[in-house]
C-alpha cells in the first residue's frame, strides 16, 4: 500500500540515504521515511519485495504463501515451515523469512486436506487407505518425543500429525528410496505424518525449533491457499 504524503516540506533527495535492505527479501523497492508535522510516515516506491528462496526451486503457491506470511507477520516472528504436499517438499524459514533449508518429504497416502474426525485416537491398523491424509492448515508446532522416545515436531496433536525423520522400519515401503527420487509421485506413503531426511530434521528442523514454538503451514491440494489461510497477493 502506498501512503500519500503532502508535497509541501517533503524532500525526497534528503531521504534517499536512509534506505536499508531487509535480508529476507530479494532486491526490490525502497521504503523511505518522511516527517510530516510530528508524525513519521513512509512512502513505498516500486513493487513490494518478495522472499528470497536463495535459488531453491519453489512452486507459485509456496512463494505466494511465504511472501504473505512475512508481509502480514502471520508467523508472529516465530520460525515457520511450509509443507508443499503437491510437490512433496518442505521449506524451513527463520523468523524473519530467510530460508534456512529445504528437503523432499513423504506425506499421507490419500489426496485430501481434511482429517477424519477422531482419527488421532484410533489405532493405525484401523485407518483405511482413503483416510490417510495430511491435513492442510496453519498449526502451532513444537519439538517433543513420541512414545518410543524419538524426537519429533508435533504439528497437530489432535490428529496425531507430526513432522519427523523418515521411518524405515518397514522395508517394503522403501521410504528412504522414495525420498531420494527426483519425482514427487512416489512420496505419498504415510498415514498422514510428514517424513523428511534424518539429517535434515537434525540439522535444520530441530535447530529452527530448539527452545521455541513455531508455525507450520501445510498447503492444500484440493483448495486454494487463499481459502485455507485467507492469504493475499502482496502486490
Strand order of the largest sheet: 5-4-3-12-7-8-9-11
Enumerate the spans where pLDDT stays under 50 for 5 or more consecutive residues.
1-22, 27-45
What is the average of the pLDDT values?
85
For the CA atoms, what is the radius of gyration? 21 Å
Textual characterization of the structure:
- The chain is α/β, with parallel strands linked by helices.
- The protein folds into two domains: 1-49, no CATH class; 60-229, L,D-transpeptidase catalytic domain-like (Beta Barrel), CATH 2.40.440.
- The chain has five helices and twelve strands.
- An eight-stranded mixed sheet has the order 5-4-3-12-7-8-9-11, sandwiched between helices. The protein has a two-stranded antiparallel ribbon with strand order 1-2.
- A hairpin with a 4-residue loop joins strand 3 and strand 4 (89-93).
- The radius of gyration is 21 Å and the shape is globular.
Topology record:
Blueprint: H1 12-15, E1 31-36, E2 39-44, H2 60-72, E3 80-84, E4 89-93, E5 99-104, E6 107-108, E7 137-145, E8 151-156, E9 161-165, H3 175-180, E10 188-190, E11 194-196, H4 198-209, E12 214-218, H5 225-229
Parallel strand pairs: 3-12, 6-10, 9-11
Antiparallel strand pairs: 1-2, 3-4, 4-5, 7-8, 7-12, 8-9
How would you concisely characterize the structure shown here?
17% of the residues lie in helices and 26% in strands.
Amino acid at each position: 500500500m502506498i501512503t500519500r504524503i503532502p508535497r509541501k516540506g517533503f524532500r525526497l533527495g534528503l531521504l534517499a540515504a536512509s534506505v536499508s535492505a531487509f535480508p529476507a527479501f530479494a532486491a526490490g523497492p525502497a521504503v523511505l521515511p518522511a516527517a510530516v508535522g510530528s508524525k513519521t510516515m513512509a512512502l513505498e516506491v516500486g513493487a513490494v519485495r518478495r522472499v528470497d528462496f536463495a535459488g531453491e526451486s519453489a512452486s507459485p503457491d509456496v512463494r505466494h504463501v511465504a511472501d504473505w506470511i512475512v508481509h502480514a507477520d502471520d508467523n508472529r516472528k516465530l520460525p515457520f515451515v511450509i509443507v508443499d504436499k503437491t510437490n512433496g517438499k518442505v521449506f524451513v524459514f527463520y523468523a524473519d523469512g530467510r530460508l534456512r533449508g529445504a528437503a523432499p518429504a513423504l506425506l499421507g497416502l490419500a489426496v485430501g486436506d481434511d482429517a477424519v474426525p477422531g482419527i488421532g485416537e484410533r489405532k493405525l491398523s484401523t485407518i483405511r487407505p482413503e483416510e490417510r491424509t495430511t491435513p492442510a492448515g496453519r498449526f502451532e508446532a513444537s519439538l517433543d518425543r513420541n512414545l518410543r522416545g524419538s524426537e519429533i515436531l508435533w504439528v497437530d496433536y489432535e490428529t496425531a500429525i507430526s513432522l519427523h525423520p523418515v521411518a524405515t522400519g518397514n522395508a517394503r515401503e522403501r521410504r528412504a528410496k522414495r525420498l531420494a527420487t527426483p519425482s514427487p509421485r512416489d512420496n505419498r506413503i504415510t498415514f498422514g505424518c510428514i517424513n523428511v531426511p534424518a539429517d535434515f530434521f537434525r540439522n535444520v528442523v530441530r535447530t529452527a525449533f530448539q527452545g521455541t514454538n513455531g508455525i507450520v503451514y501445510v498447503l492444500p491440494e484440493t483448495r486454494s491457499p487463499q481459502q485455507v489461510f485467507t492469504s493475499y497477493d502482496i502486490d
